[in-house]
Amino acid sequence: MLGQIVRITLLNLRNLPSRLGSSSVIVVGIGGVVGVMVAILAMATGFAATFESAGAPDRAIVLRGGSDSELSSGIGQDALGIVASMEGVLLASRELYTVADVPKRSSGTDANLIVRGVTGAGFEMRDEVRIVAGRTFTPGKGELIAGRGASVEFAGIDLGSTVKLRQTEWTIVGIFEAGGSAYESELWVDFPVAQSAFRWGGGASSLRLLVDSPERVAELGERVDADPRLDLAVFGEKEFFNRQKGDLADTIEMFGYLVAAIMAVGAAFAALNTMYAAVVSRTVEIATLRALGFGALPVVVSVMAEALALAVFGGALGAAVAYFGFNGFTVSTLSDASFSQIAFDFAVTTELMATGLVWALLLGAVGGLFPAVRAALLPITLALRGE
Amino acid sequence: MSPVGFVWANLHRRPVRTYLTLCSVLIAFSLFVLLRTLAVVFVGGNDLASGSRLVVSGKYSIIDSLPISQQRAIAQVDGVDAVTHQTWFGGNYQDPRNFFPKYPVEPRAHFDMYPESVIAPEVLEAFARTRTGAVAPAELAAKFGWEAGDKIPIEADIWPMRDGNRRWEFDLVGTYTFKDEDGAQPVFLFNHDYFAEATGIRGIVGWYMVRIAEPQRAGEIAKAIDALFEHSMNPTKTATEDEYSRAFAQQVGDLGLMANSILSAVFFTILLLTAVVMHRAFRERVPELAVLKTLGFSDGRVALLVLGESLLLCLFGGLLGICSAFVLTPVVALFLEFLRLDFELHWPTVGSGLGIALALGLVVGVPPAVAARRLTIAEALRRN
Question: Are A328 and A346 in contact (CB under 8 A)?
Fold first, then answer.
C-alpha cells in the first residue's frame, strides 16, 4: 500500500509541469493570500514593537496628575525639584514635549512632529540612544538631532539642513537611533534652548527618572501620591509606552486576519476549481491505475499531495514577496495617545511567515480534499471511456 | 430555447466550476467595494465639512492657543459673516476608553455657526443661561444613559480648575441632533464662560470657526485673516473646514494608503485567476460550438452566446459581491471605530464595481467570442 502511494504521488508530481498553466492559479492565489496577510500583520507587529521596545523597567515618567500623555502634562519648577531629590532617584531629566507642524515626505501636507527638549541626564539614562550620523547638539545652541523615523518620514529633516519649528530656525546636526522605539519619531533639542524658543517659562512637560530598581517605581508613585504638595502621577516607562500603543496594533492585526480570511475563501475556490480541473484532465490516467489494481487511497493521497505541494510553493512565494518587499519598510501614522506622528518599520518575523505557511497548507488541504475524493470515487468503466 | 436560457443551460454544464467561479468573482468584488470604501474614508475627508466655513488655528501647531482678542479683528475682515471659537478640552469621562471630544463654546454663536446641528430653542436658551450647563449629541447621551438634569463628571487632564481640582461637573441641560448623521462629529459642548472662570485662564481659545458669505472668496479671506496676525505673537493659519479635515485625515495617511495598495493588488490577482479559469472553460467547449454552427447558428449568434455567458457570470458575481459587501460593512466599521472615521458605502463605489464587473466580462468573454465567430466547422470538429 505504502509503495503504491509513493509511486502514484511521485508520478503525479512529475507530471505537474504539464499542467503548469492551471497549477499557477493555485500558486498565485495562495501566494496572494499569504503575502497580503503577512504584510498586514507585519505592519501590526512593527507598530507594536515601536512601543514595546521603548522604555526601560528602571525608568519612570512623571506627569501632571490626570494627564495620560506628555503633551497634556505640565509640571512646575518646585514640584520638579521635590521629586528629583527623592530617595532612590539616580538621575532626573526635565523634559519639554511639544509638537510642530512639518510636512510629511509622502503627502507634502503638514503633520504633527514631536519636539523634545532633553537634558544631559536624559541622554545618560537612555543608553539605547546612539548617534548614527553627525554629532549630538551643542548645549545652548539652536541645534537638534532627529530620530531616524522622523528623518525618513518628514520632508527636510536631513542631516546638515535647517528646519523652522515655530518661529526659530534649527540646524540638524545628527541622526539618532533608539533601538527602534517610539523615540525615533522625535526631534531632540537642548532643554533650556527649547524652554526659551517655545516660550515655555520655568517648568517642564514631564520628568524622566532613572531609579535604583524597578520596584522603586511603584514605591515612588505612593510617595508622590501621599505628598500634599504634589499633584503628579508616576508611571513605569514601559507601562507608559505600552498604554500609548493603544488599540491600533490590535486593530491592524484583526483587519489583516479579516482581509486574509475573505481572500482565503476566494483562493480556496480558485484552488478547488483548479484541482477539479486537474482531476478531470487525469480521469483516464486515474481510471487506468485503478483498473490495474491500485487502491483508492493512493489516488486520494496523490491528489492531496499535488494540492499541498502547490500550496506550499505559493505560500513560500507569498511570504518571500512580503519579506523582500516590506521588511524594514518605514511608514508613519497618527498615534492617538501622543497626538503626533509615529514612524514604524514593517516587521516580517519568522513567526509571521510560519503563520502564512500554515494558512497555505490549510488552503491547499481544502482545495485538494474534495477533488481527491471525487477522483477516488470515479466509476472506473465510465472513466476509461473518457466520460 | 431563448438565448438567455441557452446561456444559462451552458453555465450549468459544469455546475461545480460555474459556482466556484461565481464565488471567486463574488469574493473579489466584495473585497473591492470594502477597499474602495476604506480609501474614501482615508482620502476623502469629511463630507459635511463645509467650504463656507474657515478654521483659524495657531500657525505652528493646532495645540497652540490663540488670544480671544483676535475674534473681534477677524469679524471685521471683509467677507466674514460670523466668528465663534472652540477649545480642545481633553479630559476623560469615567474611563479614557470612553473617548468623545469636549469643547467649551459660545452656546448661541456655536449653533448659529452649525445650522446642521439641531437644538430645540428652549434647550439652547437653558444652555446659554446655565453657567455649568452642557449639551451632548443625542446619540452620545443615549450611549451613556444620560438625561437632561444629570450631572456629568469629567476628569480633566489639560485643564485643572484654578484651585487644582481636576474633577469638573457639568449639568446636562439637553441634547442636540444632526440633520444628517453621516460624518457628524459628536462633540460634548459646554459654556466657554464657565471654562474661563473655573480655570482662571481668561482670554484664551483653541481656534476660531469663521463663516463666510461667498465660499468662492475663501482663499482671499483666509489670506486677509492670516495677514492680520502675521507679525503678532500669535500668527494664524486659516484653511477651509474641508481642507482642514482632509489634512487631518492624511495624518493617519500612510496606513490607509498602504493597506489600500496591497489590497488592490490582491483584487486584480483574484480577477486574473478568475479570468484564467473561465478562459479554460471556453477552450474546452470549442467542439460544441462547431456543433451549434453545424445546426445552423450564425457566426454572430455563436459569438454572442459565448460573450453572454461570460458577461452573465461576471455581472451576476459582481452584483452578489457588492451585496455581500453591504452585509460586511457594519463589521468592518466596527474595526475602524477607534479611528472615529466614518465607514460607509458610497454609490460611486458601487457603480465603479459594476463597471469593472462589466469590463471583466468583456475581457474574459471577447477573445473566445471572436475565436468562436471565426471557427470553421470542419477544423473545430477535427480537434475533438
Answer: yes
Whether chain A has a CB inside 8 Å of the CB on B216: the answer is: no
| Among B24, B328, B336, beta carbon nearest to A266 | B24
Q: How far is CA B257 from CA A250, B38, B324, in A?
A: 18, 9, 24
Tens-digit pLDDT profile for residues B367-376: 888 888 887 8
Closest CA to B131 of B200, B195, B202: B195
What is the nearest CA distance from B265 to chain A, expressed in angstroms? 9
Following CA atoms A139, A101, B55, B141 in sequence, which dihedral angle do they give, to the nearest 10 degrees?
-90
Tell me if A183 sits within 8 A of A131, measured CB to CB: no
CB of B96 within 8 Å of a chain A CB? The answer is: yes
Please list, residue by residue across A333-361, b when 16 or more beta carbons sit within 10 angstroms of its beta carbon and e when fewer do.
Answer: bbbbbbbbbbbbbbbbbeebbebbbebbb
Length of chain A: 387
B347-374 and B15-44 helices, crossing angle to 10°: 140
As a whole number of angstroms, the distance between CA A372 and CA B200 comes to: 78
Q: Which of A100, A266, A331 minimises the CB distance to B27? A: A266
- d(CA B121, nearest CA chain A) in Å: 36
Q: List, as one string, the DSSP characters of B228-263.
A: HHTTSSS-EEEEEHHHHHHHHHHHHTHHHHHHHHHH
- Say whether residue B254 is in contact with chain A using an 8 A CB cutoff: yes
Chain A environment of B24 (Cβ under 8 Å): 266, 269-270, 273
Rounded to whole angstroms, the Cα distance separating A299 from B295 reads 41
Q: Which runs of E-coded beta strand occur in A198-321?
A: 206-211, 232-236
Element (H, E) at A362: helix A350-376
Nearest CA in chain A to B264: A36
Q: Is the Cβ of B331 closer than 8 Å to some Cβ of chain A?
A: yes
Q: Please indicate if any CB of chain B lies within 8 Å of the CB of A43.
A: yes
Which chain B residues have a beta carbon less than 8 Å from that of A252?
A: 255
Quote the radius of gyration of chain A (alpha carbons, Å). Answer: 30
A-chain CB neighbours of B336 within 8 Å are 251
Q: What are the tens digits of pLDDT across the range A101-145?
A: 888 888 788 888 999 999 999 999 999 999 999 999 999 999 999
- Residue A257 touches chain B, beta carbons under 8 Å: no
CB spacing of A107 vs B250 below 8 angstroms: yes
Contact A311, A361 (CB under 8 A): yes
Q: What is the predicted ipTM?
A: 0.71
CB-based contact A65:A292 (threshold 8 Å): no
Cβ-based contacts of B279 with chain A (< 8 Å): none
Closest CA to A267 of A305, A311, A308: A311
- Which pTM value belongs to this model? 0.79
- Tell me the CA distances in angstroms from A102 to A150, A208, A331, B55, B129, one per residue in order: 10, 26, 16, 19, 42
CB-based contacts of A26, cutoff 8 Å, min separation 6: A270, A271, A274, A275, A307, A310, A311, A314, A364, A367
Check A231 against B331: CB less than 8 A apart.
no
Residue of B nearest to A330 (CA): B254
Cell of A148: 531616524
Which residue type, as a one-letter code, is found at position B248?
F
* pLDDT tens column, B327-354: 877 776 666 554 444 556 667 778 888 8
Smallest CA–CA distance, residue A17 to chain B, in Å, is 17
For B247, the closest of A110, A246, A269 (CB atoms) is A110
Q: Where are the beta strands (DSSP E) in chain A?
A: 59-64, 89-103, 110-118, 130-134, 143-147, 162-165, 168-177, 186-190, 206-211, 232-236, 330-335, 340-345
Crossing angle for the helix pair B15-44 and B254-284, to the nearest 10 degrees:
160
